[in-house]
Amino acid sequence: MxxxxxxxxxxxxxxxxxxxxxxxxxxxTSDEWIRTRTGISxxxxxxxxxxxxxxxxxxxxxxxxxxxxxxxxxxxxIVATSTPDFxxxxxASIVQDNIGAAxxxxxDVNAACSGFIYALSVASGMIAGGLHENVLxxxxxxxxxxxxxxxxxxxxxxxxxxGAVLLRRSESPTGLRSCVLGSDxxxxxxxxxxAGGSRTPITAEQVQARQHFIKMKGGEVFRFAVHAxxxxxxxxxxxxxxxxxxxxxxIPHQANIRIxxxxxxxxxxxxxxxxxxxNRYGNTSTASIPIALCEAIEAGKVSVGSNxxxxxxxxxxxxxxxxxxxxxxxxxxxxxxxxxxxRNIQSxxxxxxxxxxxxxxxIDALRRVNGIxxx
Length: 375
Ligand code: ACO
What we know:
CATH architecture: 3-Layer(aba) Sandwich
Strand order of the largest sheet: 1-7-6-4-5
Distance between the termini: 60 Å
Helix content: 25-40%
CATH topology: Peroxisomal Thiolase, Chain A, domain 1
Number of strands: 13
CATH superfamily: Thiolase/Chalcone synthase
Bound molecules: acetyl coenzyme *A
Largest sheet: 5 strands, mixed
Shape: globular
Number of helices: 12
CATH class: Alpha Beta
Radius of gyration: 21 Å
Oligomer: single chain
Number of domains: 1
């Protein structure tokens, strides 16, 4: 039997911190209101030179470093995102080029904040089915670019970031033990961006009416979230042949501390088994679970044999839960100067490779034009 094991992990967040006091300057709100209603104190906001792909690239490079894997050995790059750099092509293709994963396929998954769980299940299925050996799964979003900074009911919630894991084929029965995915598309209007897609393309009128920004019915999403987290986690635990007592660490999507606490209470999970970093990053959408996983590892909360319950929910409405049995040593490796040198060389190689491919494409195009005109 073949299993998909997490052997590398990494995350990246923008350096710019936006505190609640900063948001007080933009809309009629207060640090106290935001902290008590959401648990958020600050979030990271992408700078002008950053985008979903730059954050995803950094997270992927960090995961490859932990896995000690050359980018050339990556078979597939999957990016879960709802804020791609462009409507097309995929962020995954940009990341594949940036990291120099020369022989990897690449595609995006859009399941909003549940995207990382969806991508994880696709990757695990491909590995278990014998199609691939090393798959990079990245959750990356820059929701700050879709937030209406005049709408106090949404702009306080979101932040930017990316998290990545490297899944590797393994004979050891660890890794993804079960996965539950769900969707209720009747809830599209609870959380969505009305304009900018094929139904309502962007026009000056749509922009003037602020329809290109996130619209959300907060109370509706809140109630859905608590129910979805509890139900999906229970189903995933059951389908892994476990009980809730077997779960060592609960890592839910980081949207709101009150959602997390209500769901943990419904599941009777004690606070010491619940991981949250929503206070420092806000809701980073599909990046929140892998970022939280990385920080839980850094905090020494994950070791060989740990059973992790990862659960996402969000726009769609969609949800997903996965039980992961940890299978590798997660203690941080001592810093090795030569490894960062190898990584620098690999990044430069990727830049040179990308430049060479683009140049070759231009030369081919010129040759073809000249051929047609008989020069
Ligand atoms: N500052 C001050 N007051 C505010 C703010 C604010 N930032 N936002 C809303 N209020 C006011 C409202 O106007 C309302 O005032 P009123 O009673 O005079 O009308 C009052 O506060 C209460 O508003 P509610 O919306 O009932 O506040 P609630 O306690 O529900 O909290 C919140 C709102 C934080 C948005 C909550 O509903 C929530 O977190 N919902 C889930 C959102 C979420 O997680 N979305 C992401 C899902 S993941 C994804 O896919 C992206």
